[in-house]
Amino acid sequence: MNKSDQNDARGLAELVRVGRYREVKVKSEESRRIRALLVARFRLVAIRRDIENQVRSLIKECGLLFPRAIGLQFRNLDL
Question: What is the DSSP string of the chain?
Fold first, then answer.
């Protein structure tokens, strides 16, 4: 079957006829805004974790070891 608007319309009509069509609800602006903030926070947390792991690895080469939760130690560290 060739790709055309007429064929697409026929295919969509067939989906509706046999009941394989499902209504999609549009998300609210508030919902999209919250989702965007959560995704941004997730990425920032991942970036922070990656940087902490890289610094921990560099410090380990100098013979120093820090525990996993080292945020406060990073802030108080004098290098």
Answer: ----HHHHHHHHHHHHHHT-----PPPPHHHHHHHHHHHHHHHHHHHHHHHHHHHHHHHHHTT----S--HHHHHH---
Q: Which amino acid is at 22?
A: R
Q: What is the pLDDT along the chain (79 residues), one digit of tens a residue?
A: 577 888 999 988 988 888 887 788 999 999 999 999 999 999 999 999 899 889 888 888 888 877 666 566 656 666 5
Contacts (Cβ under 8 Å, ≥6 apart) of 77: none
Predicted confidence at residue 56, as pLDDT, reads: 84
CB 32 within 8 A of CB 46: no
Sorted by sequence, the CB contacts under 8 Å of residue 56 that are 6+ apart come out as 66, 70
